[in-house]
């Protein structure tokens, strides 16, 4: 859920108080207090997973782009030998956005995070609006490590997108938004 400003105020207040600390013990206590307050604000896993599919990004629905990008970076399948330059990466829709205009599928489905991957700009251009099977081959050939839902998929159906959104939601709750 979006903050109403309370979280920002809490951070700002804590930052001011932290800058005024003269002893390490004071600072440690302040950080513990902030952590406790933040933990009390965490939604339950069920609440989080229920709202996670509403995190949408398309060319037409772009107000959540920064949050989608942040989430995809946090979930990026890193290998030990490669550290990507996330500033040079773009968001790719595995099932093309062109289907929205044709009326074959809704923007809410195409924009769901389960249909999105983060890829280098050059690879994004090669993927373009190709069918999923071709995109999958190109992604694997480029060394992209796919999750189990994508590995098992032959097409980006609604069921695949929803299943992957659920998987990524669980991973996001466990890995990204932990305190």
The strand line-up of the biggest sheet is 1-2
Structural class: mainly alpha
Distance between the termini: 16 Å
* Uncertain stretches: none
**Count of helical regions:** 10
Q: Categorize the overall geometry.
A: elongated
Biggest sheet, in brief?
2 strands, antiparallel
The helix content, as a percent range, equals 55-70%
Quick synopsis:
By secondary structure, the protein is mainly alpha-helical.
Structural write-up:
The structure is a single chain. The protein has 179 residues and is mainly alpha-helical. Helix content is 56%, strand content 6%. The chain is built from ten helices and two strands. Strands 1-2 form a two-stranded antiparallel sheet. It is elongated, with a radius of gyration of 19 Å.
Task: Please describe the topology of this protein.
Elements: H1 6-20, H2 24-41, H3 45-51, H4 65-75, E1 89-93, H5 98-102, H6 107-110, E2 116-120, H7 121-127, H8 132-141, H9 148-152, H10 158-176
Antiparallel strand pairs: 1-2
Helix pairs in contact: 1-2
């Amino acid at each position: 859920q979006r903050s109403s400003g309370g979280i920002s105020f809490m951070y700002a207040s804590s930052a001011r108080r932290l800058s005024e600390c003269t002893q390490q013990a004071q600072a440690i206590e302040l950080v513990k207090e902030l952590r406790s307050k933040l933990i009390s604000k965490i939604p339950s896993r069920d609440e989080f997973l229920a709202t996670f599919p509403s995190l949408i990004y398309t060319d037409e629905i772009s107000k959540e782009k920064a949050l989608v990008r942040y989430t995809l970076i946090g979930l990026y399948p890193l290998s030990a030998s490669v550290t990507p330059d996330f500033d040079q990466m773009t968001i790719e829709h595995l099932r093309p956005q062109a289907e929205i205009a044709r009326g074959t599928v809704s923007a809410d489905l195409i924009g769901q995070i389960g249909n999105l991957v983060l890829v280098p700009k050059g690879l994004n251009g090669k993927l373009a609006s190709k069918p999923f099977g071709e995109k999958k081959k190109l992604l694997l050939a480029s060394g992209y490590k796919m999750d189990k839902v994508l590995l098992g998929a032959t097409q980006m159906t609604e069921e695949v997108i929803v299943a992957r959104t659920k998987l990524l939601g669980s991973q996001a709750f466990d890995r990204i938004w932990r305190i």
